[in-house]
Amino acid sequence: MTVSREVELEGHIIDSGMMQSCFGIIMDLGGSFSVQEFDIGRHKDEESYARMLVEADDEDQLQSIVHELHQHGVNPSDPKDATLVPAPDDQVVPHGFYSTTNHPTYIRHDGEWVEVEDMEMDCAVVVEDSDSPRAYTKVLNAIEEGDLVVTDETGIKVQPPERPRDSSGAFGFMQGGVSSERPSESTIRKIANAIEETKKEGGKVMAVCGPALIHSGAREDLARLVREGYVDMLSAGNGFAVHDIERDIYGTSLGMDTESLDHPRHGHKHHIYTISEVIREGGIEEAVESGTIESGVMYECIDNDRPFVLAGSIRDDGPLPDTITDAVEAQNAIREQAHEADMVLMLSTLLHSVAVGNCLPSTTRVVCVDINPATVTQLLDRGSAQAVGMVTDIGTFVPILAEQLLSED
Amino acid sequence: MTVSREVELEGHIIDSGMMQSCFGIIMDLGGSFSVQEFDIGRHKDEESYARMLVEADDEDQLQSIVHELHQHGVNPSDPKDATLVPAPDDQVVPHGFYSTTNHPTYIRHDGEWVEVEDMEMDCAVVVEDSDSPRAYTKVLNAIEEGDLVVTDETGIKVQPPERPRDSSGAFGFMQGGVSSERPSESTIRKIANAIEETKKEGGKVMAVCGPALIHSGAREDLARLVREGYVDMLSAGNGFAVHDIERDIYGTSLGMDTESLDHPRHGHKHHIYTISEVIREGGIEEAVESGTIESGVMYECIDNDRPFVLAGSIRDDGPLPDTITDAVEAQNAIREQAHEADMVLMLSTLLHSVAVGNCLPSTTRVVCVDINPATVTQLLDRGSAQAVGMVTDIGTFVPILAEQLLSED
Amino acid sequence: MTVSREVELEGHIIDSGMMQSCFGIIMDLGGSFSVQEFDIGRHKDEESYARMLVEADDEDQLQSIVHELHQHGVNPSDPKDATLVPAPDDQVVPHGFYSTTNHPTYIRHDGEWVEVEDMEMDCAVVVEDSDSPRAYTKVLNAIEEGDLVVTDETGIKVQPPERPRDSSGAFGFMQGGVSSERPSESTIRKIANAIEETKKEGGKVMAVCGPALIHSGAREDLARLVREGYVDMLSAGNGFAVHDIERDIYGTSLGMDTESLDHPRHGHKHHIYTISEVIREGGIEEAVESGTIESGVMYECIDNDRPFVLAGSIRDDGPLPDTITDAVEAQNAIREQAHEADMVLMLSTLLHSVAVGNCLPSTTRVVCVDINPATVTQLLDRGSAQAVGMVTDIGTFVPILAEQLLSED
Amino acid sequence: MTVSREVELEGHIIDSGMMQSCFGIIMDLGGSFSVQEFDIGRHKDEESYARMLVEADDEDQLQSIVHELHQHGVNPSDPKDATLVPAPDDQVVPHGFYSTTNHPTYIRHDGEWVEVEDMEMDCAVVVEDSDSPRAYTKVLNAIEEGDLVVTDETGIKVQPPERPRDSSGAFGFMQGGVSSERPSESTIRKIANAIEETKKEGGKVMAVCGPALIHSGAREDLARLVREGYVDMLSAGNGFAVHDIERDIYGTSLGMDTESLDHPRHGHKHHIYTISEVIREGGIEEAVESGTIESGVMYECIDNDRPFVLAGSIRDDGPLPDTITDAVEAQNAIREQAHEADMVLMLSTLLHSVAVGNCLPSTTRVVCVDINPATVTQLLDRGSAQAVGMVTDIGTFVPILAEQLLSED
């Protein structure tokens, strides 16, 4: 005896690979299927439709197949309302809670599909039951006793974004995966265009920055991009800010003069002295106001009111007074920025890029730049619909990008 | 008109490279020198002695030369007491405070040399003035108003450890730098010997672990090493513990069955479910006691009373109740462990290894294992006297190490 | 006015992704299509069938679409004979010659489909016209005046191998791509099974070896695998053989004792002395016979009649008398081995693995092991249907593999 | 009973590390020493002098110590003539032949020191005995029967170049080792200066180029550098030339349009078509003359008479008629270029850079650029006195370098 459920697929289901994934999932999980209706888009613009009966040996197996299917956008043809169970305690989710993907998601409540707000992956979905019900994600540690948490698999619809077919637009190149075998200058030109297009659409650009950006001499050009409004907000670590400010106060980065390449012998102390100076002032903003800090990325953020998050880590010296040392608090600050961003530039940092990437829906544009191909691969592996990775030297990338953006004004 | 100061060098000053460094520093910084007395060790066991007059154009230049020299173990022949200045406020050091190296260091106080306790780099030195004066390091954020902080360059003696000449002992191979071109099994055998020797001396072994250790299937063997007492304490991140416990509860790591290599299609949810289960229980110890967790690295730590530190980071899911999310608190916990360790195994984690490395004096033995040569190079670059790096697969390293250690019992 | 052609797809055309690729190609190249017949496999075992009309703006565009389609296994529904043009000169192909993929390929000649022999990519196809016509690949430099070379796109059928659905067999894991996040010992166990299965089927295993295999201490275990018949033939460079023989004669590799890790100070001369000794003897076989070489990989090859190819390169010292210094001759020797191999182990060499990979049809099993993830990715990127990459240390991989294979006998 | 020999050290023997190496060697090899005379340079400009008695347990040990010492520039105080033994056969050196370092070397013959010509490492030294005797290196495969080959250790003087103390000149930065943490644009500016300085001195600049240079879009700028005379000669592989010419004929590299980043679907055939076209013409020069090739690096080499060597390898398609497929012949051609070069730019190729590096004396300036830090490390590890490595993207490096060099004219 087998159990079965009917599911539907709609859209460019062949072209997008959805149908292939669907067949694969069913077979991988040991189920079987029969196609009951199949209406193929006869031209390239037409959508297709398929209705299938999924069969499994028992209810458990069927559930796990249907669970996988719906994560790939295949939904039951007879949707029911989502199951809501109150959280038994703060930070404790009900058993069998639904853990999110990063794709646009809808919850069926009182027979209506409600879009889930603030989509990001590995969260619970909480529904506010009212006349106009809302659904939104919550990370586990934010769950409060009594929150109505979506559990099980029913009443949930996931819509993985289709990768745009047309590669001719400003963002068309952003599906190219990672390659160190692409022409560097042309790729940077494309990225510059995508940033301009995003700004023209009124979008916000977020830069996620690692300290290598400073060591490699790209600080001044990033500062210009912040000043000129091509970077709307910034996420980095304590070290990034310290290196940026060290360059301002002492002219060095990691103790090396970034112009002359000289390495003043006592330069390795500049790092810790810089921290000490900023602590003495009370913070970066205070140090800018007092004139202690007169240039650089952090300076331009303060001077032009670009919000920044400095997240602490266990390898920090200091930390600076501005650094959020609690990881959960820092995540919340990053999350807020990430949800506002329309395009994210991940510049030479794995830790902070992963943290930001964790909070992004799959619809946000992502550019990821690092000299380590493994880092770029790992960051692009998160299923964004428009993402491009570039294996290059951040110390030449930022200057060329800035030249592209600033000389075209 | 020039200024000058007399300095002394003692020990195996040619063999250790000290004399060469010293000449280099003086010339690099634009000074000059004349050798006033030079008594070379005529045989390989004899120590040498040199007395030199260092000359510079002005007092600033002289100070900076003497500063560099003393960081390499060259000390003024006419030592004065260290200068102590009270900290003006909490977390605020006096101007010109002395920032430490990770080498054994002595402070001259009331004409006596006092050894600085808890040596680690980039700290201030605080002196407790009393009948039996003490000196110890303090990180910047731990400074309290009124602390007597060592400033300037006088009255400080640094003793970089000499690398042992004799390479025949158990630790003799631990000066080999990084290489992926060394025979793997022989190197692991040497590391096993060094661990045994450390245990025989009554020393403590600390393991610093990244999640790759679990993914790569080395979990069971590390657990055995913890159980059998070859690992006395453990430092890791939230992710390591979650992956370890996921393997226990669901048989997967990152959703992959580590035995069959099957990838149960809903396995990617195991990670977040694991966190949820441990939160529900209240913590790892509670989950062990209740029987929810029955095996693995964390289980053995609990079961055998091996202390562990789980430090949070902004890329964590969860986090687990045991994870210290505040970076400063986590550093303090790591610091305490690091100061107790006689040998540190850095296993496939850059972030946590740097954090631990920051707290280690240069006399602690360090073994660093990673598949990325850049990580190993970066970690070995901290000036430990006995350190070895190995570019290998942690998933084969730990099993072979465990076999060496456990079959020899 | 548009031009059009009818094409057919057969098999697991959705499950295998063929249909998706096909739609993508047409749209990427600016064409359009209408599906004229679509018969979907209603159960997982049934094959599907589709007939489509491909439309384009002009004949050029249509040709290029049809060209791409047929490289993905989509064939015209009205096949014509292939066009044959005689080569105008030695090493000179006719304009518009057909350049091969590495997939099984058929040429239509006199109304019959003839399978192309010795498939490999980037070759011309030469047809021998006779009562029983043959078709085979020729590399450009082997073309002789008058060879009948297939040109244009008609009359050619390509069949990309389907990736096996069922992952439960001995080779089921060999579609896993590259990952450094898989359990190492379990993966090696799977590879051992696949080797055994290949041998049971009467297949031949070819090892492609880089010098790192020797430096990392895996020499003895590879030698055992050669002796015991798990490696049937070997492809390597001059350096590999020299390092292997140096270990035999001097006990060192790159001048380091692979047991004690000691580095005899004059050890760096062993390399060049080894070459000199073998030249003096006249070759490896002579040196084995005279007793100069008494153990190791090359010794076992000679002693057990396992054919080997040593290909020269511009970085060689020496070279040994056995080394084929001409690249074209060496390629021919490698090609002959590659065409005989049923399974290829690529062990820590990019250069030789690429050379071998260039000669392999897409149906040969490939295992690629390297500590550099970029190397593994590059090697797996060649479209073999059964290939697996492992990022690990060759110095632990070979010993564990040998233990698996040799202890199970 | 011990044996002993007296040796002398002269020059900046402490500052250069020579004395330290010398003590280390003796102790590592189990010998002992007593310093008999030591005259230290009392100021930074004065040279030092030391005379030591080296003692060992037997003549073998003593020889091996003295052998090592003299490779580091320590020479016996009582030099004898070098021992010359005729080669017994073609390609066969006498037993115990002296294998060279890459440092300037002198052979004592008839009581006179004769400088060895064409220094490179791992060669034999052949002496032409006549009124004005000459000594020069020969690789093993070039040895002819009867050649007088230097054997044993006596009568040989090696002078490792001292690294220049003064870092202020045009080449002062070229001792910086490898770092990805240096400011990129400033470093490129320094390299540009060093190239200009080399040209001003009448020196020759050799470029060693990998295909990544073309894929990454740097082709046009390298072509300009060739045209304008900043590159005097070029060493590359078959693939580099093919990719360069593909870009000219088809506008693609690896099938990708390097301007638009479009990937024409049939573009992957361009590579093999390009080879076919050049074979048809008879060679690159013929294809330039006929107008088939109209631009690019190879075009500029032909057009401006810059000699080039294209060395074949087993992974080549084709090869082109210009490619030297025999590794030994190719080495000889590379060797000739390398001996003429005053500065070598190694641009994104490990294989060809190692081949060139093998032929360079330690006095040639070397700049090594690659995106893979392991490649840069390996290439810099050859003991050149003036070498700098840069971990960067060749696709941005060459354009910025060209801008520096060409805009300053």
TrEMBL record, chains A, B, C, D:
Database matches in Pfam families: ArgZ-like_C_1st, ArgZ-like_C_2nd, Saccharop_dh_N
Enzyme Commission designation: 4.3.1.12
NCBIfam families: TIGR00300 family protein
Residues in LOR/SDH bifunctional enzyme conserved domain copies: 4-103
A molecular function (GO) term: nucleotide binding
Name of the protein described by the UniProt record: Ornithine cyclodeaminase
Keywords linked to the UniProt accession: Lyase, NAD, Nucleotide-binding
Catalyzed reactions per annotation: L-ornithine = L-proline + NH4(+)
Cofactor needs: NAD(+)
Function comment: Catalyzes the conversion of ornithine to proline, with the release of ammonia.
Enzyme class: lyase
Limits of the Arginine dihydrolase ArgZ/ArgE-like C-terminal first subdomain domain: 104-188
Family of this protein: Belongs to the AgrE/ArgZ ornithine cyclodeaminase family.
Residues covered by the Arginine dihydrolase ArgZ/ArgE-like C-terminal second subdomain domain: 190-401
Stretches the record annotates as Disordered: 158-185
